[in-house]
Amino acid sequence: MKKYGLVILILAGIMGSFALGVSTGYNRHFPFRILKKYWSGPNVDPSFQNAGRNLHLDRYFPAETDALKRTGVYLTYGQSNAENWGEYGYSVLSEVFQFALGQTYIYEDPSIGGVGEGGSVWGMLGDKLIERGIHEQVVFANCAWGGLRISKLKEGHYLQFLIDQHNGLIKKFGRVDGILFHQGESDNFTEGVLAYYDNYAEFLENLVKAGIHIPVYLSRTSLCGKGHPLNKELTDVQDQLIADFEMVREGPNTDMIIAEGDRIKDNCHFTLSGYEKFAEMWVKCLEQDK
């Protein structure tokens, strides 16, 4: 009888843990945190209805950084591969944080501020930057929005959210180390390529008008599924922007991440192995710029 009683208690405890997780609407409690490591694909948590930016701040753990540590502070911007559309399942190992609306939180996917319900590259990048000794802590503020052309991202409320996050980071940390920019897939067609240079130049001009004078690390990217195959004309334009503008620095070339298994079934967004390569590219770009 004692044996059965123990089993009943264990089962009751597990069921209670699930009930607690469900009651919060988020998978932060045992056993959800263990289960999520084995759950891949972009649709992890149905409570994150993809109707806009993830600003469900109550679902994350608030945390303060240590002012005595070397902290990297970055804005992230672009379209879906800069936010939460890849394979879910990575958990940060080090002091990686995310920022939104004046508050810092422990980093956890789906990242705050982005759109989508899956994983992103930023937590993995944060761990690698700390592991390499570039920073002791890292803070990301995600401002990306999936599926947008640069003509949309260069202005309006999309850009204003980036500006507001920048100003919030300045108020809290006194600086921002750069904008990590990954976009181009939605401009992978003839008219988009022809207009990309001028639109991006206007984006940079609008940043300066808003008082933002920080490096913008521009990725080279064109590939996103069958509709947007590899397009060297577009990545050549992005290379030209890096060469022509002092504030634009070299970011990753993710068109090189095309090995089998590095992208999920849509052949656009990344698996965890793809994010590993993506994050390594970011580290090299940031490391050489330091």
Describe the structure.
This protein has two domains: 38 residues, no CATH class; 237 residues, 3-Layer(aba) Sandwich (Rossmann fold). It is built from eight helices and seven strands; from the N terminus they run ααβββαβααβαβαβα. With 290 residues, the protein is of the alpha/beta class. It is 38% helix and 13% strand. A hairpin with a 2-residue loop joins β2 and β3. It is globular, with a radius of gyration of 20 Å.
What's the number of structural domains?
Answer: 2
Helix/strand class: alpha/beta
Largest sheet: 7 strands, mixed
Radius of gyration: 20 Å
Taking pLDDT < 50 over at least 5 consecutive residues as the criterion, the unreliable ranges are 18-50
Mean pLDDT: 88
> Whole-Å distance between the termini?
66 Å
CATH architecture level-2 label of the largest domain: 3-Layer(aba) Sandwich
CATH superfamily of the largest domain: SGNH hydrolase
**N-to-C SSE string, H for helix and E for strand:** HHEEEHEHHEHEHEH
For the biggest β-sheet, the strand order reads 3-2-4-1-5-6-7
Q: Quick one: overall form?
A: globular
Q: Name the CATH class of the largest domain.
A: Alpha Beta
Percent strand equals 5-15%
| Share of helical residues | 25-40%
Q: Nutshell version of this structure?
A:
This protein has helices at 2-24, 32-35, 122-131, 150-153, 156-173, 190-209, 232-244, 272-289; strands spanning 71-78, 96-100, 103-106, 137-142, 178-182, 216-220, 248-253.
